[in-house]
């Protein structure tokens, strides 16, 4: 059985980062006693964000900053950091910096499920609110009513691209949080096989990283495509969505600029008992703007949909 060594601790890792999101994520991560350490991979675009994570590390002993030369803040820099997840006795949970809700005891719940299924699967993810594949699961397997033609594709026109839809979905989830109704978002556990999946929150064993070596996430590949589809297919070990463990992801690049014009991020801070003090500023790069225009031309502009419980 792959990954047979005894695992005795959990480390969270986050490609960092944007202060406007990280302040909220820090609230959840540092409140989780099951997380032994939090490693921030310094992939900051702005010096102000870098100074923020350095100050965060000075204030909290559990935080360690991982640095590499020539990082540029883009996804292409992230692959080089996976090599630091090399402690065989550790379960790593990679978290996007814009996760805006984590349930109490997330690390212990995800780790327990992974331990029970170790060797049969490569990674474990919670059900992620605002993740295209998870949105499809919500439509067909949860108590959430989604009036939209969502597809089981990572780049679904609705689940990945539509900011109005994401706003509606977040609003429904926020209401569920306030009313104690998060169970409506639960789905049966599901395997991910031969399909790209957005890895917003992904748990895996360090022993599997050591065993795979450079093949765990080679340089020059798309880490999401590789870890969610290519490597599981090669090893014949799918990924697993743990359907009764729910987190929330703020946005894809296709949604972020529009979502930041709403009060959704403020509301997530509010349910955590915090106040948003550093609103992220989204400046879409020229290539992304061109890509968005092309999508609008061939697929039509994103349109709103309804989500309810």
If you had to describe this structure to a student in words, what would you say it looks like?
This protein has 309 residues and is an alpha/beta fold. The protein has one domain: Spore Coat Polysaccharide Biosynthesis Protein SpsA, Chain A. Helices cover 35% and strands 20% of the residues. It contains 10 helices and 11 strands. It has helices spanning 19-30, 47-59, 106-116, 132-141, 163-179, 206-212, 223-235, 256-259, 264-271, 286-299, and strands at 9-16, 35-42, 63-66, 90-95, 99-101, 123-129, 145-147, 190-192, 201-205, 239-249, 306-308. Helix 5 runs parallel beside helix 9. It is globular. The model has no long low-confidence stretch (mean pLDDT 92).
Give me the count of strands: 11
CATH superfamily: Spore Coat Polysaccharide Biosynthesis Protein SpsA, Chain A
Mind summarizing the main beta sheet? 5 strands, mixed
Structural class: alpha/beta
Instruction: Report the uncertain regions.
Output: none
CATH architecture: Alpha-Beta Complex
Total individual domains: 1
Strand order of the largest sheet: 3-2-1-4-9
Q: At the first level of CATH, what is the class? A: Alpha Beta
Helix content: 25-40%
- For the CA atoms, what is the radius of gyration? 18 Å
CATH topology: Spore Coat Polysaccharide Biosynthesis Protein SpsA, Chain A
What is the terminal-to-terminal distance? 42 Å
Task: Give the overall shape, derived from the CA principal axes.
Answer: globular
Percent strand equals 15-25%
H/I helix tally: 10
Task: Output the helix-strand order.
Answer: EHEHEEEHEHEHEEHHEHHHE
Compute the average pLDDT.
92
């Amino acid at each position: 059985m792959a990954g047979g060594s005894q695992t005795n601790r959990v480390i969270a890792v986050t490609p960092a980062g944007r202060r406007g999101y990280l302040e909220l994520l820090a609230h959840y991560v540092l409140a989780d006693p099951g997380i032994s350490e939090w490693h921030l991979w310094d992939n900051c675009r702005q010096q102000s964000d870098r100074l923020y994570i350095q100050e965060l590390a000075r204030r909290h002993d559990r935080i360690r900053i991982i640095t590499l030369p020539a990082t540029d803040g883009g996804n292409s820099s992230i692959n080089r950091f996976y090599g630091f997840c090399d402690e065989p006795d550790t379960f790593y949970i990679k978290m996007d910096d814009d996760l805006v809700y984590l349930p109490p005891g997330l690390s212990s719940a995800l780790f327990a499920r992974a331990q029970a299924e170790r060797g049969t699967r490569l990674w474990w993810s919670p059900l992620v609110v605002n993740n295209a594949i998870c949105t499809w699961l919500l439509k067909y397997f949860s108590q959430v009513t989604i009036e939209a033609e969502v597809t089981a594709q990572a780049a679904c026109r609705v689940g990945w691209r539509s900011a109005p839809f994401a706003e509606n979905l977040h609003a429904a989830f926020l209401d569920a949080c306030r009313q104690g109704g998060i169970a409506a978002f639960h789905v049966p556990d599901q395997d991910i096989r031969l399909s790209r999946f957005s890895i917003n929150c992904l748990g895996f064993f360090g022993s599997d990283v050591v065993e795979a070596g450079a093949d765990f996430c080679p340089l020059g590949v798309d880490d999401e495509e590789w870890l969610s589809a290519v490597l599981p297919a090669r090893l014949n070990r799918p990924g697993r969505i743990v359907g009764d463990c729910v987190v929330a992801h703020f946005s894809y690049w296709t949604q972020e600029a529009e979502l930041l014009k709403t009060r959704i991020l403020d509301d997530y801070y509010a349910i955590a008992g915090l106040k948003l003090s550093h609103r992220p500023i989204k400046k879409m790069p020229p290539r992304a703007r061109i890509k968005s225009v092309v999508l609008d031309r061939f697929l039509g502009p994103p349109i709103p949909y309804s989500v309810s419980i």
